[in-house]
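[agent] plan:
  1. take the single chain provided in the ticket
  2. run structure prediction with default settings
  3. attach structure tokens to the ticket
  4. add a short note for the reviewer (M.T.)
[agent] executing step 1
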Amino acid sequence: MTGFEISLAGRTALITGGGNGVGAEIGRAFVQAGADVFVNDISRERATAIADELNAIGGDGRARPVKADVTSPVKVTRMREETGPVDILVNNVGIPPGGFGPLKRFIDTEPSDWDLTVWLNFGAVLHVSHAYVGAMVAAGWGRVITIVSDAGRKGERYQAVYGAAKAAAMGFTRGLAAEVGRDGVTANCVSLGSMNTGALAEILAKNPEYEERMAKPYPLRRIGRPADPAGVVTLLASDHGSWITGQVYPVDGGYLSSL
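[agent] step 2 finished; step 3 output follows
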């Protein structure tokens, strides 16, 4: 590595929820930077489709699909057996506010409404990190990057449980960073604002004017695109990120700074 080139050559990465959206774009950046990438998804078809796409872009790295439900400790253990150790872990998997249903006030929800939100946005971070960080510590080098949300930094209406899960992931990351820094392993978060991906992308495709309303609180006057966080994540995953740990980096179009 020379100058300010960001290279991941010789590194192996796992990206949870890498079968679409933000995770797929991080995978694209990693492969172009020379990393070999395991694309995790609960759907083998999605993971395989993205891995094939990444292998076709001409980067120095290669991609492989790996199916696993990362809310299950047993299935995470099986995934770890399949992939072996990795140098870089991106805890990207998550579920949007409200899950796959309408947004509700907390007092209008039931305990059953919280489970998937908590397990995907926080539990999966614990399970996957626990499975992979030990080998990083033994190797004396590693990167853990967890994708979180401004809802966990600020608090948003109708997102109390979602924001709590994301805040928990940030607290876990800070504690992990303090534990494993002396072993050459860094741990950081990248915090996103509203992103034009997944279910929201489907809504915006049908109602373009809604995106304009959503973008009004953002100084940059647009909501996020899936590729927006990829550069920061790649920097944190590289040797240039060796003295950055325990931090939460906003990639949010200036949303919180505007409050």
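[agent] step 4 note for reviewer: The beta strands are 12-15, 36-41, 63-67, 88-91, 142-149, 185-192, 248-251.
[agent] ticket updated
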